[in-house]
Amino acid sequence: MKDTQNQRDYRNIPIDKVGIKNLRYPITVGDRREGKQHTVATINMYVDLPHEYKGTHMSRFVEMLHVLQPEISLQRFSEILTNMKKHLNAASAHIEVTFPYFIEKKAPVSSSPGLMDYTCRITGTSDPEGKIDLVSEVIVPISSVCPCSLEISDSGAHNQRGEVQLATRFKKFIWMEDMIELVEAAASSDVYSVLKRADEKSVTETAFANPKFVEDIVRDIAKKLQEDDNITWFSVSAENFESIHNHSAYAHITSD
């Protein structure tokens, strides 16, 4: 049959990224406690397209995932990127895998267990020289108490849920759990899925004893990462969904 994608294009314009987006696919990821965890990812896959080609072969992206039966690991990511370049005659390849990751978390006083879900993302790129670049990212819900509100109020202070996004490059493998725990330690308080009354009291008192601006949160996380020789690059942002303002508070730090 005629291969339309391989026909020549005469506009002389290369395309930086072409491929598929929002493919839902079952994957297996490493779990620090259980060894492995099964989840469902949303996957984006792209390659570059030279100016002389009319199109790429979209079906091959899905075929490669099916053959590889992806277990998301650093070695597997490198393998997928190499195969994308080989089978699609591309100089560069890019993949983004976003998935919910579940961790059993016990309440601070009653120890009642509950599952917390965190959004995790791994992105990988292979450049024309074959260099592989991998980035791990977590999105973590947090709670914060405003230091200014606490200082100026006769009683109470405004507090709110927030969200921290942390992305890292590293020399050696880093667990998603380690990144999540680092973020939660920098908040006024963790967020839990199950809390009894004694737990609610503990969480509230812990948060009010540990007020944090978004500036404090990103600085505390950045300081820990700067002290970690395994981390070669990071990007961290905090957004508080303000309870008394019609806007969010936001702070962001990217390392050199």
Task: Tell me briefly what this model is.
The protein is α+β, with helices and mostly antiparallel strands. It has helices at 58-68, 74-87, 147-152, 176-185, 197-208, 214-226, and strands spanning 15-31, 35-49, 71-72, 93-106, 113-126, 132-145, 159-170, 231-241, 248-254.
Topology readout:
Elements: E1 15-31, E2 35-49, H1 58-68, E3 71-72, H2 74-87, E4 93-106, E5 113-126, E6 132-145, H3 147-152, E7 159-170, H4 176-185, H5 197-208, H6 214-226, E8 231-241, E9 248-254
Parallel strand pairs: 1-3
Antiparallel strand pairs: 1-2, 2-4, 4-5, 5-6, 6-7, 7-8, 8-9
Helix pairs in contact: 1-2
Q: How would you characterize the overall build of this protein?
A:
The protein has helices at residues 58-68, 74-87, 147-152, 176-185, 197-208, 214-226, and strands spanning 15-31, 35-49, 71-72, 93-106, 113-126, 132-145, 159-170, 231-241, 248-254. Helix 1 (58-68) packs antiparallel against helix 2. The longest helix is centred in the N-terminal third of the chain and has 14 residues, at 74-87. The chain has a nine-stranded mixed β-sheet with strand order 3-1-2-4-5-6-7-8-9. It is elongated, with a radius of gyration of 22 Å. With 256 residues, it is an alpha+beta fold. Helix content is 26%, strand content 41%.
